[in-house]
Amino acid sequence: TEVVIVIHFDLELDQLIGKITLCLPYSTIEPIRSMLYARYQSDQLEVDLQWINRVKKQLTDVEVELVVELGKSRIKGNDLLQIAPGDTIMLNQDVNDPLLVAVEGVPKFRAFAGISRGNHVIRLTEEIEPGTD
Question: How do residues 25-45 score in pLDDT, each as one tens digit?
Answer without folding.
Answer: 888 888 877 766 655 544 445
